[in-house]
Amino acid sequence: MFFDTHNHSQFSFDGGKTSVEKSVKAAIEKGLGGICFTDHCDFYVPQIPEKTGPAVAEVFDVRAQQADIDRVGGMVAEGAFGRTAAKKFKVLKGIEIGLGENNRDLDRNLLAAQRFDQVTASVHYLEDTDPYYGHYYKGKNWKEAYGRYLETLLREMKWLGDFDVMGHFDYVVRYAPYPKESILYKDFPGLMDEILRYLAENGKGLEINTKSYRQYGLRTPQLDRDILIRYLELGGEIICLGSDSHDPQQVGTKFDYFAQYVKMFGFRRLGHFEDRKLKMVTI
């Protein structure tokens, strides 16, 4: 029974379409074994021309989030979502920590002060913008845009160190204007080796963020098989499935497909973290 390791609730700044309770209900109905709420925490948000309103930190109330997770987890245990879920389904407490030079001390201080089941480290903001809004790509070709994103991700996750899963390494391709719609190992072999070796040697999970592989306009990014193969060659074995859901309908999207996809290349288990300790589930 797969775990959805990357979800957002009403406590994320962009979680207005969902809630802990709604997403738990959806995960149980889809036959998942558990769900982790990794709400957004980006301490530094630049003023972006395309974004209306003032720049404010995208953080959440950790105590309130965890109290609601405990409440809904209690409902699950009491049988509110069925007997099977009461015995097996887990509701986990997480955070998606935003990496960046301006966040460094605040990120470390928060992680030292709070307890989570899983910490996912991601890059949303770089060069004082978010690729989502488009300005990041101006004046860059596809290789420069993707390469700078990967370089930032590598540098900042190595600096932080205190995390469990590398989130959406290919976030940058979702909103890109180029015909080159995917990050391929062959285009960045040295850089990808550094990233994958770091994950493998330090027991960090490689997230397959299924939101990245939806259709964006006329483009549909693909997960490159060579990245998976190289991660395994370097000793990596922790593949984590995350839907990056902001809506209950998105929970667990295409998990069966991607579980079978990674199995084709030698992965036999999928990972998630509980109390910052790795747990593996056979595919």
Give an overview of the whole structure:
The structure is a single chain. With 283 residues, the protein is α/β, with parallel strands linked by helices. 34% of the residues lie in helices and 18% in strands. The protein is built from nine helices and nine strands. The strands form two sheets. It has a seven-stranded parallel beta sheet with strand order 1-2-3-4-5-6-7. Strands 8-9 form a two-stranded antiparallel ribbon. Helix 5 packs parallel to helix 7 (189-201) and helix 7 crosses helix 8 (225-233). The radius of gyration is 18 Å and the shape is globular. The termini are close together. 43% of the residues are buried. The mean pLDDT is 97.
Quick synopsis:
By secondary structure, the chain is an alpha/beta fold. It is built from nine helices and nine strands. Strand 4 (118-122), helix 5 and strand 5 (165-166) form a beta-alpha-beta unit.
